[in-house]
Specification:
Blueprint (H helix, E strand, L loop, with lengths): L1 H26 L22 H22 L3 H24 L5 H26 L6 H23 L8 E3 L3 H16 L10 H16 L4 E3 L12 H16 L1 H41 L1
Helix pairs in contact: 2-3, 2-4, 3-4, 3-6, 4-5, 4-6, 5-7, 6-7, 6-9, 8-9
Length: 292
């Protein structure tokens, strides 16, 4: 019986010491602390992931709507739908980052929606508008643009986390679509000084240029370094107000002009970097000769 009695005594001593340690722990709490005990954070509802995907779906709908209107020969509405898709596509990614709802599904869904809205839709709208008058050269130009958009999106997905976030490698597909849609909108409103006979050739050139520039290695500013959640310089607000005024006064001309400048900026930056690099190398060579 002694071993059993000794076991009970040891067990009672252990429980008594455990109760004393718990009382000491509770006594260390501040009695004047009126803060309520914080409940553990609730898990984020999965329904919020529908928020960025809803914007992606809306952008996809605008691209499909542009194709339908092109088939009905309502090219101005089709061009406006492509611009609406561009706005919605720019919002879904930012909303996903702000609400911390990024997901692999959202990335793939956004890429597929971009292929329809900025790859297939602009090519078909341009072909139904004037490129079909060029015969096989017209549909070859439309296919070149469509294939360039597919390659551009595939390369972008493969290089996520590798390339510099401040710059895009190649012309982004939304900008290429806006370049083509802006010209269609502008010419359809008869606000561009181009003869009707020259419009198919100009459209052919713009389509080929946009398709090839998307798969080029030219760097285009991405704008991701500008975070709207923090303070921005005063001149940014001035440019924003000026942009609203210009767009409201003449939307097709302003938008087409903006994207023409952006579509050329990558090559201008490339030439500038080559010129500065050549000047720097030439200066270093001259300095070495002088030192010798």
């Amino acid at each position: 019986m002694l071993p059993r009695r000794k076991f009970r005594q040891e067990r009672l001593r252990f429980l008594r010491n455990r109760a004393v340690r718990r009382d000491d722990w509770d006594s260390n709490d501040d009695p004047n602390d009126d803060d309520p005990i914080m409940d553990p954070p609730r898990p984020r509802s999965k329904g919020i992931y529908l928020l960025p995907n809803a914007f992606t779906t809306a952008a996809l709908f605008c691209g499909f709507f542009a194709i339908v209107n092109a088939m009905n020969h309502r090219f101005e509405v089709a061009a406006i739908a492509i611009f609406a898709s561009l706005v919605l596509d720019g919002m879904d990614g930012r909303i996903a980052r702000m609400t911390n709802t990024q997901s692999a599904f959202g990335e793939q869904y956004d890429s597929l929606a971009d292929m329809v809205s900025f790859g297939v839709a602009p090519a078909l709208v341009a072909y139904e508008w004037v490129l079909k008058d060029l015969g096989k050269w017209g549909w070859l130009a439309a296919f070149t643009y469509c294939a360039g958009a597919a390659l551009r999106l595939a390369r972008f997905n493969a290089n996520i986390g590798v390339v510099d976030k401040k710059f895009f490698q190649g012309l982004p597909s939304p900008a290429a679509a806006a370049l083509l849609a802006g010209f269609i909108w502008l010419a359809d409103d008869n606000k561009i000084p181009v003869k009707d006979s020259a419009i198919p050739l100009v459209t052919f050139f713009i389509t080929i240029y946009a398709g090839l520039t998307m798969v080029s290695n030219a760097r285009f500013y991405s704008g991701k370094a500008l975070d709207v959640r923090y303070r921005v310089p005063f001149w940014v607000m001035v440019l924003l107000i000026l942009g609203f005024v210009l767009i409201s006064s003449n939307p097709p001309l302003t938008l087409f002009g903006v994207f023409v400048v952006y579509a050329l900026s990558g090559y201008v930056l490339w030439l500038w970097e080559r010129a500065t690099t050549g000047r720097r190398v030439g200066g270093e060579t001259t300095a070495v000769h002088k030192s010798e």
